[in-house]
Here is the input.
Amino acid sequence: MARKQPKPIHQLTAAQFERMFPNEDACCAYLVGRRWPDGVRCPRCGAENPHKLPNRPWSWQCYQCAPDTSYRFSHIAGTIFENTNKPLRDWYRVVHLMLTSKKGMSALQIKRYMGFGSYETAWSMCHKVRVALMEDIDKLGGIVEVDETFVGGLAKNRHWDKRGGGGTGGIGSGKTPIVGAVSRKGNVVARVIENVRASTLTAFVHEAVSHKVSLLCTDQWVGYKHLDKEYPHVVVDHAKGDYVVGAIHTNTIEGFWSLIKRGCVGTFHKVSKKYLPLYVAEFQFRYNNRENADIFGAAIAGC
Ligand SMILES: [Zn+2]
Here is the structure.
């Protein structure tokens, strides 16, 4: 078989980044254009045409919501960039690094690359960006695959085995379950869950998957059994050696899990379990914007 053509990568290259953001002013202008494509509005009351402060760059005053005392705001008011001592250009570089790295980038790598003095700085920036990348996805339609996986645990048995597989993963291993649904050629929705009981999985499917779905593929886990009543549910029986039967497979969601497990989440330690939803959101955002020519702009818009 002929070698696959490399897929077009809709990502800013380093050179493009330099051209787009040669200095801090260019970064500020970009943010203003993203936040307020139809002209600056007061972030507090939404009033149009606030008064531009003549002697302070990127600052405005709103007389609408505060006629007496007046309300002043800057381009970063109400964004994740507010109250930080890092220039926007540093923030943009961090966002760019996070988006271009398919498996995610650890805070330690970011710290080294950016030359930050402290790990804390890098860590807190990454986390703020992850919060900004959290998105609501419309219910999935078409052919949808649903599956769960387990993540975390000690480094020495850091396998991502399915439920109860020989003590190295699954239920009772102390690992954290994540459930996901993916529409073939479409979006993924993934979420950290407490357990893989039928009630939990069904609640997730209700939220993430449209009832008008044409096919819902899962594996043979008993937790998915109840879906038969509500959805055109088909099962891939891995135990019987079934992996792909025509359209009936869960390879797409398994591909998403493998992205996560090869990434920095694969090494996540118990201590950061509470932040796991943010890592999952980061992977979800990258996946859902994989063909978005302006993924960087989409990320900045959420900041
Ligand atoms: Zn206002």
Notes: The chain has nine helices and eight strands. Residues 27 and 88 are 6 Å apart (CA to CA).
